[in-house]
Specification:
InterPro entries: GlpE_sulfurtransferase (IPR050229), Rhodanese-like_dom (IPR001763), Rhodanese-like_dom_sf (IPR036873). It comes from Paenibacillus whitsoniae. It holds the Pfam family Rhodanese. This is Rhodanese-like domain-containing protein. The chain is of the alpha/beta class. It has a single domain, classed as Oxidized Rhodanese, domain 1. The protein contains 6 helices and 5 strands. A 5-stranded parallel sheet has the order 1-5-4-2-3. The chain is elongated and about 60 Å long. The model has no long low-confidence stretch (mean pLDDT about 90).
């Protein structure tokens, strides 16, 4: 094997790992539909609702009661999220909320859910900033 072939194998392996790590599911993550999230919020289960979008995105509207902790700042702010309550995450489309769930799971959070499809799939009330 020459050096170029080894480099290509390593590069392809990295690409496969990167895609898998970004799009694979998170163990124990509950995927909620808009209806399921509305029901959970109406039940007053004590869930903490976290919007992981950036502040400029939140200005376009957010789910009432949500706390904005952007994914870009989550690693330095996750201590603000109680570990003893269910945590529901959402973003624009559902990708960043899965990444946030992965971060929280690695830091000991167990009761994690996210809004499947993000706020784009949300059919409930939206508060404008």
């Amino acid at each position: 094997m020459n050096g170029q072939m080894i480099f290509n194998l390593i590069a392809h392996g990295f690409i496969v790992w990167f895609i898998y790590s970004r799009f694979s599911g998170v163990r124990g993550l509950d995927n909620l539909s808009s209806q399921q999230l509305q029901e959970r919020l109406a039940e007053k289960t004590g869930s903490v609702l976290i919007d992981v979008r950036e502040p400029n995105e939140v200005k376009q509207g957010y789910i009432p009661g949500a706390v904005n902790i952007p994914l870009s700042r989550l690693k330095t702010r996750y201590a603000e999220i109680p570990q003893d309550r269910p945590v529901v995450l959402y973003c624009r489309s559902g990708m960043r909320s899965k990444q946030a769930a992965r971060i929280l799971s690695k830091n000991g959070y167990k009761q994690l859910s996210h809004l499947r499809g993000g706020i784009l799939a949300w059919r409930g009330k939206v508060t404008q900033s």
